[in-house]
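testing teh design pipeline on a random one, pls ignore if ur not involved
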């Protein structure tokens, strides 16, 4: 241990203005910032949360009120201090906080003025305000006993206990906006709609289990559940436990579009759309941190868009999972990566099947076997696609060909054209680009040479010279890939 008393010291107090800018740059957006404030309400046992705003152009305010336990004056001052709790401290099992920063960083990320009113049961209301302009001016971290207009001290009286967080001067959203500018208002309302959707997603488990109600401009927010568990066509996998049962992983393959109604399909699009919503959903104490992210283990691809995998972690594993201040990043500990990857690989394999076959089961249904028109198969290590020779269409075509050969060929070609297994081909090409076969690769080329000979003879009989015939054939797909045969044709 160093003997500190032997050394000279000098104060090096954080400089207010640069500290503030650092806080502001943590990378929240308004959705994640509001959610972080509501985390505090939930940790304080609130049953109801009200998110309100009043459009006033650049003077627009936004408030988040809860009926939680509230704080007394000392507790509020402590809460307003940046770093009010040690991140290393153990937290109660339900606590959604970690760094003792959220209230401040989330608020400052959007607004230059933060006022918090709070009231404990049987106590009077207390309040304090951070004003970043004032801190900048004085260079001191001093709170102001200031209440913005439109608010008064009685705002919490009817609740018994609770907390009201007010953001003013929300420069990250409404800077330079004028109240009478309808375009600006539209933009603002669009952003607010995003906030609402984000809350419906992040807190869906709390809302579903009726632990909390969140009102948005006095309308109750309905939960958004990513897994469509009430849909019959949703496939759920049995859960697997990690880290001595502390972490639980459970996979879902959502139904193919053809198996759900339009409304459900739109609902499941969520805030980011089907493709972006694929991946892991990490919940920390039931609160959603990540909504569709493959955690660097896989890439997002169209054919995996039906797959969503739930991972539940407790707050005691924050450090292992590298939970960040914004609570929008989590990384699995290295030792569990393989297990998570293996689990996800199984779910993904099933998800691709559903995507490819439009939710059709390939298994026997009612004792009848599914008959595909196209069959994918491997020749050597390359993939090829062939028409199923057992398909009833072929028999029908043969029969029809006896009387109407042109029609028979046309019908057959039409069916083949319309059913090209492009999804299946795309998936294989994307996953194993080296394994796509070329025409006639790896098989006897004699039939091609024979066909070219026949075509050559036919062209000569139509009056072409041998040279002309060869040029014509050399420009016909796929014979253009076999021009070397032409040299030996006479
Ligand atoms: N709505 C609230 N109701 C009661 N206490 C609150 C509320 N918001 C914040 N606090 C108190 O302020 C502290 C600091 O909050 P915050 O800066 O978000 O950090 P953290 O949530 O990581 O503890 C919380 O731990 C809590 O004690
Ligand atoms: Mg917090």
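output:
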């Amino acid at each position: 241990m160093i003997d500190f008393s032997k050394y000279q010291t000098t104060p090096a107090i954080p400089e207010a203005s640069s500290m503030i800018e650092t806080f502001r740059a943590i990378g929240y957006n308004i959705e994640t910032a509001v959610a972080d404030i509501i985390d505090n309400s939930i940790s304080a046992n609130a049953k109801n949360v009200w998110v309100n705003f009043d459009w006033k152009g650049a003077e627009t305010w936004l408030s988040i009120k809860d009926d939680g336990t509230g704080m007394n004056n000392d507790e509020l001052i402590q809460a307003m201090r940046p770093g009010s709790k040690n991140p290393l401290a153990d937290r109660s099992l339900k606590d959604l906080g970690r760094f003792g920063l959220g209230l401040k960083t989330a608020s400052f990320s959007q607004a230059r003025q933060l006022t918090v009113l709070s009231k404990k049961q049987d106590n009077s209301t207390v309040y304090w305000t951070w004003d970043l302009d004032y801190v900048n001016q004085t260079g001191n971290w001093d709170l102001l006993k200031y209440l913005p207009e439109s608010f008064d001290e009685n705002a919490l009286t009817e609740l018994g206990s609770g907390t009201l967080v007010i953001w003013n001067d929300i420069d990250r959203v409404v800077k330079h906006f004028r109240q009478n500018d309808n375009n600006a208002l539209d933009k603002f309302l669009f952003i607010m709609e995003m906030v609402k959707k984000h809350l419906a997603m992040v807190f869906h488990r709390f809302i579903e289990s009726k632990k909390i109600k969140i009102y948005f401009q006095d309308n109750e927010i309905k939960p958004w559940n990513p897994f469509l568990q009430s849909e019959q066509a949703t496939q759920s996998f049995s859960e697997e436990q990690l880290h001595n049962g502390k972490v639980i992983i459970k996979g879902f393959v959502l139904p193919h579009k053809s198996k759900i109604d339009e409304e459900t399909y739109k609902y499941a699009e969520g805030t980011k759309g089907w493709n972006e919503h694929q991946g892991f959903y990490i919940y920390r104490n039931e609160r959603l941190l990540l909504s569709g992210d493959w955690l660097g283990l896989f890439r997002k691809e169209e054919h995996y868009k039906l797959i969503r995998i739930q991972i539940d972690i407790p707050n005691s594993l924050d450090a292992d999972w590298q939970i960040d201040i914004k609570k929008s990043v989590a990384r699995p500990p290295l030792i569990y990566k393989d297990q998570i990857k293996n689990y996800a690989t199984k779910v993904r394999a099933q998800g691709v099947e559903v995507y490819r076959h439009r939710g059709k089961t390939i298994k026997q249904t009612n004792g009848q076997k599914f008959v595909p028109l196209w069959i994918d198969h491997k020749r050597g290590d390359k993939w090829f696609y062939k028409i199923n020779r057992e398909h009833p269409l072929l028999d029908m075509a043969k029969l029809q060909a006896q009387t109407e050969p042109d029609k028979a060929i046309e019908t057959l070609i039409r069916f083949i054209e319309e059913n090209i297994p492009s999804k299946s081909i795309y998936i294989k090409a994307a996953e194993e680009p080296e394994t796509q076969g070329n025409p006639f690769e790896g098989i006897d080329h004699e039939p091609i040479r024979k066909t070219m000979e026949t075509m050559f003879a036919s062209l000569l009989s139509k009056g072409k010279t041998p040279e002309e015939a060869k040029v014509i054939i050399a420009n016909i797909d796929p014979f253009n890939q076999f021009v070397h045969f032409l040299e030996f044709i006479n």
